[in-house]
Amino acid sequence: MRSLLVLKRKNVLVAAASFLSAISTLPAQNTAPAGTKPNPAIQTPSTTREQAKQSSQSYPPALVESGNSAFQQHCAFCHGRDAEGGETGPDLTRSQLVTEDNGGDKIGPVVRNGRPDKGMPAFNLSDQDIRALVAFIHTQRAMAETRKGGRRGVDPSDLQTGNVEAGKAYFNGAGGCAKCHSPSGDLTGIASRYQGLQLEERMLYPRNAKSKVTVTPPSGQTISGELAYQDEFTIGLKDQGGQYHSWPVKNVKFTIDAPVEAHVDQLGKYTDADIHNLMAYLQTLKQGAAQ
């Protein structure tokens, strides 16, 4: 039984990953109703590329090579060897901060101070190392801009093509999202914490979502907590105090509330328009924004 459950979950994860990979390579489509005017506040990828070309900076080859060495040592693990994104770090060649940087005035402080809220540590590097890193990153950005159709990442603007009102209606209606989530509760400011594909991934399949379980032993006194363990023989939980409890499943009754399962079920029901519209709505849920 346990092996079947693991296989089922593995298949779902593979399907979700394939789905995300497929939609990230598709060209953005405008799903807003006919006659809707484009939002001038939203920059398109072509606009961003044009701004980058206009602000391109060139550096001596020796400085770029020195920056390459420093980047491989300190940055490549997260941002990829070519600065175009890695497992945990964003694509720096399409970073708005890099686009706005002038000779290291934006990049330097981020490198030295880090971004603890996003998991980036601070680096105690010399001024020369910072200049070299800046040269390498800007050179990589300029090279990336010359490759037509070669980018790997997904910009937030690629996912801002849906209709906000249609997405809100789906959230509160057919999508069933409002049964578990609230824009003024657990989703408050979610678009400030996650952007672009990261937000879409959490929408489609939230990782590390905690399941709750309520167990009724023979005594009849129920106990609830976070699901900590389950197989065909044993059910275990952690109570509010962090204490672990477990029982043989044959001796108790239990119910599990697994929020992630609702997202899994929804994967087969979404249309392209549903996803684009829901994303458009979720991206309005920023810190301090009126709902």
Can you summarize this structure?
It is built from twelve helices and five strands. It is an alpha+beta fold and 291 residues long.
How would you describe what is shown here?
By secondary structure, this protein is an alpha+beta fold. The chain folds into three domains: 2-31 and 160-208 and 261-282; 45-146, Cytochrome c-like domain (Cytochrome Bc1 Complex, Chain D, domain 2), CATH 1.10.760.10; 212-257. It has twelve helices and five strands. The protein has helices at 2-25, 45-54, 61-74, 76-79, 96-100, 107-113, 127-146, 164-172, 190-193, 196-204, 259-267, 272-282, and strands spanning 212-216, 223-230, 234-238, 244-248, 253-257. A five-stranded antiparallel sheet has the order 4-3-2-1-5, with no helix packed on it. The two termini are 44 Å apart. 22% of the residues are buried.
* Domain count: 3
Principal-axis shape equals: elongated
Helicity level: 40-55%
Give the strand content: 5-15%
Mean pLDDT: 79
Distance between the termini: 44 Å
Number of strands: 5
Q: Helix-strand pattern, N to C?
A: HHHHHHHHHHEEEEEHH
- Helical run tally: 12
Which class do the helix and strand fractions yield?
alpha+beta
Quaternary state reads: single chain
Radius of gyration: 23 Å
Task: Using the 3D structure, state the CATH architecture of the largest domain.
Answer: Orthogonal Bundle
Key features of this structure:
291 residues, Cytochrome Bc1 Complex, Chain D, domain 2, five-stranded antiparallel β-sheet, 10% strand, disordered N terminus
